[in-house]
């Protein structure tokens, strides 16, 4: 057994001994308490016994005093020396009264005895009155009558006179008998408690012997404990010396660790600075790449626009066909620039979305002709649309653009020949199962091609803006970036699965919605309409535009379409014009100084609830998109034909219908 185990065993033994000593001490204390209680009960019983003796003695002495007083009264009635006999009578009777008072005090704690004492007091007073009557008769020289009255109250009782003396002696006997009964009970209690006290004293004696023996044992244990304590102290001193040595070693090692930690902190600070510098370099590189790509594409498009307009100006007096060719090229370049800007805004999530409840089966099914015309006859398009597909709450125009962009990318990956499959299905996604997607129900739209596929490196950078593997002039690298921005802006996610040589599947996850169909709408610029359908001649239109160049061009386009435009530069001016004129339609920019377009329309709607509204914007700031819900929206830049379609659509939605006949005729006259 090791020293530590021996020490623990000794401590356990000591603990057991201490517990036994504690229990024995408590038992001893209990026995002492019991003996004290028994002795106290015995003392109380003895005191009660003495009290009973005292009361009995008082009753006897009082009876004797009353008898002596009665005898003194008799002698007073017979004796010639009345003065001496009368004084004896009064002395004995006063002594009996004092004894009665003492008796009442002695029995005052016992209700029954106290009641008997009260009755005794009444009898004593009545008996005293009788003796007083005898003494008064004798003192009044009525000795014969007094003597006969004394015989009547002291000898044999008669029917006329109550035997007060007998009752008095009987009451004294009753009190004495009650005290004797209590005395026997107290004697029994005294004997019982005396026996218990003696028995407990014997037990206490034996217990004292046991405690003494145990004390001897505990002394032995204490001696052993002192020896062990000395040994433990010596061992503790040696352990303390070893601990001090160890502490010195730990202190030296801690100093070394502290110095190493300081070096690591310095290195960490340097590393953080280097990482921050590297992030800044990477950020500047990304910004440089982004601005370089934008500048490159915009320069190409502006070169087409500037070149086409310049050539058209030089050929103003030349053939019309050549001029139209140059203007058409310029318009194509401007349109491509507008599309590039819209893609940038979509990627930055600044493109205004006009969401509504969309049934994808209807939307994708209606795009068949558009996809066939866009992809060509060599691409076979197959659709697998779920009939119970969950509805989604998205901008339908942006969703169409996303699907078209995926189809165009798939066509380029298949080099113009292959099979394109568009599939929709319901999925319950776990959190972060794809990208940063949240857990919940989603509608998944998959676009699968049979093209060349992507390498892991290309797949990793697929959503970066201006990153493209296409040849120069074949793409801007914003298609997937635009889709990525649209999906995240709609609360969804985009996933890519691709294998080199087997094809690529791009999946758009859009959250399921319970929203009901609403009147949210964006202007459908792709709808084909005839020139007659696209104009409502004679309508008076209020144009609110802060940019003078855009305002002038838009007014000219509206006049060419046969409308009556009235232009102003701010919201307050528009409200002032409405107070003096009537208009069929308000065309307003969204972001303007002093008052935004939505703020102006809210104020205007409070005055004229039936006015038609068309918003025109190139960029919608944060929080402005919600203010456009319920209105038609036309994005800048736009062509005259697009403007015509948007104006006609907005006018068709006004509750007042077409302009009045007089205004239409006036407009025709002005156009002519």
Automatic annotation (TrEMBL):
Q: Which residues carry this modification: 4-aspartylphosphate?
A: 589
Report the catalytic activity: ATP + protein L-histidine = ADP + protein N-phospho-L-histidine
Xref: Gene3D superfamilies = 1.10.287.130, 3.40.50.2300, Histidine kinase-like ATPase, C-terminal domain (3.30.565.10)
Q: Which organism is it from?
A: Sphingomonas caseinilyticus
Domain (Response regulatory): give its ranges: 540-651
- InterPro entries, alphabetized: CheY-like_superfamily, HATPase_C_sf, HATPase_dom, His_kinase_dom, HisK_dim/P_dom, HisK_dim/P_sf, Sig_transdc_His_kin-like_C, Sig_transdc_resp-reg_receiver
Q: Which residues cross the membrane?
A: 16-37, 203-223
A family per Pfam = Response_reg
| UniProt keyword list | ATP-binding, Coiled coil, Kinase, Membrane, Nucleotide-binding, Phosphoprotein, Transferase, Transmembrane, Transmembrane helix, Two-component regulatory system
**In this protein, which residues make up the domain named Histidine kinase?**
293-514
What is the annotated signal peptide range for this record? none
Coiled-coil region(s): 222-249
Positions of the UniProt region annotated as Disordered = 652-672
User: In which domain of life is the source organism classified?
Assistant: Bacteria
Record's protein name = histidine kinase
Q: What is its EC number?
A: 2.7.13.3
């Amino acid at each position: 057994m090791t020293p530590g185990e021996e020490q623990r065993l000794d401590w356990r033994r000591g603990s057991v001994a201490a517990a036994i000593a504690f229990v024995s001490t408590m038992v001893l204390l209990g026995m002492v308490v019991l003996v004290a209680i028994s002795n106290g009960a015995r003392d109380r019983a003895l005191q009660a016994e003495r009290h009973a003796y005292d009361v009995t003695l008082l009753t006897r002495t009082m009876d004797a005093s009353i008898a002596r007083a009665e005898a003194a009264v008799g002698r007073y009635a017979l004796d010639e020396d009345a003065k001496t006999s009368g004084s004896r009578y009064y002395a004995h009777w006063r002594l009996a009264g004092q004894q009665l008072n003492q008796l009442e005090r002695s029995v005052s704690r016992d209700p029954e005895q106290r009641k008997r004492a009260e009755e005794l007091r009444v009898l004593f007073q009545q008996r005293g009155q009788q003796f007083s009557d005898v003494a008064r008769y004798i003192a009044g020289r009525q000795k014969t009558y007094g003597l006969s009255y004394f015989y009547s109250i002291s000898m044999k009782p008669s029917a006329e006179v109550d035997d007060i003396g007998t009752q008095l002696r009987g009451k004294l006997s009753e009190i004495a008998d009650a005290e004797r009964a209590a005395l026997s009970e107290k004697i029994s209690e005294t004997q019982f408690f005396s026996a218990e006290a003696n028995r407990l004293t014997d037990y206490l004696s034996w217990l004292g012997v046991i405690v003494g023996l145990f004390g001897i044992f505990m002394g032995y244990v204490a001696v052993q404990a002192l020896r062990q304590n000395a040994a433990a102290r010596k061992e503790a001193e040696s352990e303390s010396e070893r601990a001090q040595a160890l502490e010195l070693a730990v202190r030296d090692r801690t100093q070394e660790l502290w110095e190493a930690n300081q070096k690591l902190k310095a290195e960490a600070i340097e590393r953080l600075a280097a990482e921050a510098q590297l992030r800044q370099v990477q950020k500047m590189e990304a910004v440089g790449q982004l601005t370089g790509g934008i500048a490159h594409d915009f320069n190409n498009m502006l070169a087409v626009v500037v070149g086409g307009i310049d050539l058209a100006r030089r050929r103003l007096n030349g053939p019309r066909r050549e001029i139209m060719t140059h203007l058409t090229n310029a318009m194509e370049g401007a349109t491509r620039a507008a599309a590039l800007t819209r893609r940038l805004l979509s990627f930055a999530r600044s493109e205004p979305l006009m969401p509504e409840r969309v049934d994808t089966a209807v939307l994708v099914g209606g795009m068949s002709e558009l996809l066939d015309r866009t992809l060509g006859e060599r691409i076979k398009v197959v659709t697998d649309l779920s009939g119970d597909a969950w509805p989604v709450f998205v901008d339908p125009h942006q969703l169409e653009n996303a699907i078209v962009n995926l189809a165009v990318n798939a066509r380029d990956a298949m080099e113009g020949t292959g099979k394109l499959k568009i599939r929709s299905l319901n999925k319950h996604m776990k959190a972060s199962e794809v990208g940063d997607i949240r857990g919940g129900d989603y509608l998944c739209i998959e676009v699968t091609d049979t093209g060349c596929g992507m390498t892991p490196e290309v797949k990793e950078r697929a959503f970066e803006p201006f990153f493209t593997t296409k040849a120069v002039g074949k793409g801007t690298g914003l298609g997937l970036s635009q889709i990525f921005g649209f999906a995240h802006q709609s609360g969804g996610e985009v996933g890519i699965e691709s294998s080199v040589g087997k094809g690529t599947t791009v999946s758009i996850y859009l959250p399921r919605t319970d929203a009901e169909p609403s009147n949210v709408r964006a202007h459908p610029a792709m709808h084909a309409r005839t020139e007659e359908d696209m104009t409502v001649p004679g309508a008076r239109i209020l144009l609110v535009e802060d940019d003078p160049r855009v305002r002038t061009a838009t007014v000219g386009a509206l006049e060419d379409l046969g409308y009556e435009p009235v232009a102003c530069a701010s919201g307050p001016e528009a409200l002032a014009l409405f107070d003096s004129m009537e208009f069929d339609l308000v065309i307003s920019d969204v972001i303007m100084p002093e008052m935004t377009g939505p703020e102006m329309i809210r104020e205007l709607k409070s005055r004229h609830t039936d006015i038609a509204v068309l918003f025109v914007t190139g960029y919608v700031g944060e929080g402005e998109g919600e203010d456009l819900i319920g209105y038609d929206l036309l994005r800048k830049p736009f062509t005259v034909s697009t403007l015509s379609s948007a104006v006609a659509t907005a006018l068709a939605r006004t509750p007042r219908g077409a302009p009045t006949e007089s205004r239409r005729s006036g407009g025709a006259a002005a156009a002519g």
